[in-house]
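Changelog note: in this version the structure field was regenerated for every chain. One regenerated record is shown below for reference.
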Amino acid sequence: MSQSQFVSPPPEIINIHEAKTHLSRIVEEVKTYGKPVIIAKAGKPQVQITPLQTEFYKRQMGTLKNQIRVPDDFDTMFADEIVQMFEGA
């Protein structure tokens, strides 16, 4: 059985003048979306801006044990009110 692999799109190429003009926006987009950007001079790639790899906080399961309670009717709570909101009754 073969698995299809996810292929990410190629990095965006930006000329050096645009990079100097919009550096803050470019850095924010790289950081937010994680997609690298290549800066080119005269159409030739020079450098690549990539997001830093950050360590994610590892969740600890069970930290709220016995501190919260989920009601038995959780799945049906407020069902009538929700229907009224959608139907406008």
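Spot check on this record: The radius of gyration is 24 Å. Residues 65 and 85 are 34 Å apart (CA to CA).
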